[in-house]
Amino acid sequence: MTRQLRILMIGAHPDDCDILSGGTALRYARAGHAVKFLALCNGCGGHQSMAPEDLARRRHLETQAVARLAGIEYEVWDVPDCELMATLENRRRLVRDIRAFCPDVVFTSRPNDYHADHRNAAILMQDAGYLLIVPNFCPEAPALRRMPVVLFFYDRFQNPPFRPDLMVPIDDLIEDKYALLHCHTSQMYEWLPFTRGSLDQVPSGDAARREWLHGPRLPRDGTVPDASLLGQATASPVSEIREAAPAIKYRDFLIERFGEAGRHVLFAEAFAVSEYGTPLTPDLARELFPFLE
Ligand SMILES: [Zn+2]
Question: What one-character DSSP code corresponds to residue 82?
C-alpha cells in the first residue's frame, strides 16, 4: 500500500451504504484503507410495528455490528427517517463531518431517486461539495485543501439513466457482503419483506435466514446470467439477482475494462463520477482504486 486512502460513503439510511457499496467498502478495508459509512437519518421509520425510538436504537446496534465485521467506522446522525431536509444547518453539519474525516473519495446517492431522504442526502452532498474547500464557510472546521472525488451509487432510475464510470467486481467478496447485510435484521428479515409482501416466507434460524437472503443463489459454474433474470420477483430484498444486476446491465463496460475476465464477473458494484467533485483522471483512478489494476 503506497498510502492509506480515506473513503467516506454517505447514505440516507443505516443500510444504504451496505447495500450499494458494501463490497467496495470491504475491498478498501481489507487493504488497510480507512472506510467510514455515514447515515444521515437514524432509521426510525423502517418498521411495521416497532416504535421509532426503539427502532433507531436497534438500528444503531445493527450498524455497529457491521462496523465491527467490516473493520470500518459507522456513524448515524439523529435525523428522523422521512424528515431529512437540505437545510443550511444540515449543510454545515455535513461540511464539518466531511472535513473532519478528510476523504479522498466520497460515495453517495444521485439526486434522482424515489425516496425524499435519498434525494435530500444527494442534494446535501452536492451543496456541501465545493464548500469543503471554502475556509470562510464553517471556519471552526479547517477547510480541505483538495476536493474529494465524488461518486454516485448505482441506481435503477431512468430519467436520466445511470451510466457507470467505474465498476468494482466483488465475486470474491459476495459472501462477506451478505454477512454485512445479515446484520440489518430489522430490515432484511422484517421491514423490507413486509413491504414486499414476503414476510411470511422469512425462515427462522440464523443459517436458514442467511441462505434465504441470497434468494436464491445464482449458479457458480461459470454460467453468466443474462437480462432475462432482471425482471424476476424475489422474496429476499437483496437477492443475488439484484446483486447481479449491474454486471448484467453493464457487461460491455466490464469487458472493455477487464478484458476476457469481465465476461465472467457475476457481481459488481457500479459507480458514476459526479462532475462537481475532483475529476477522476486515469492517474487519480489508479491511485484511488488500486485494486482495479
Ligand atoms: Zn435508504
Answer: T
Model confidence, pTM: 0.97
Distance 40 CA to ligand 1 centre (A): 10
Ligand 1 centre distance from Cα of residue 43 (Å): 9
In contact, 234 and 242? CB cutoff 8 Å: yes
| Å from CA of 258 to ligand 1 middle | 31
Contact indicator for 280, 166 with CB cutoff of 8 Å = yes
Q: Separation of 205 CA from ligand 1 center, angstroms?
A: 26
Kindly give the distance from the C-alpha atom of residue 14 to the centroid of ligand 1, in angstroms, as a whole number.
7
Each domain of the chain, given as residue ranges in start order, spans 6-292
Report how far residue 87's alpha carbon sits from residue 128's, in angstroms, rounded to the nearest whole number. Answer: 11
DSSP 97-112: HHHHH--SEEEE--S-
CA of 171 from ligand 1 middle (Å) equals: 24
Helix (H, G, I), strand (E, B) or coil at 241: helix
**Residue 148 Cα to ligand 1 middle (Å):** 23
User: If you measure from the C-alpha of residue 36 to the centroid of ligand 1, how many angstroms do you get, rounded to a whole number?
Assistant: 17
Give the domain 6-292 fold: Rossmann fold (3.40.50)
Tell how far the Cα of 290 is from the centroid of ligand 1, in angstroms: 29
Measure the CA–CA gap between 15 and 81, rounded to whole angstroms: 12
pLDDT at 231 (0 to 100): 82
Q: For the chain (length 293 residues), average pLDDT per consecutive 10?
A: 92 98 98 98 97 98 98 98 98 98 97 94 96 98 97 94 97 98 98 97 97 94 88 93 96 97 96 95 96 90
Give the pLDDT of residue 87.
98
Question: Given the C-alpha cell 424475489, which residue does it identify?
Answer: 234
Residue closest to 8 by CA, chosen among 132, 156, 178, 112? 132
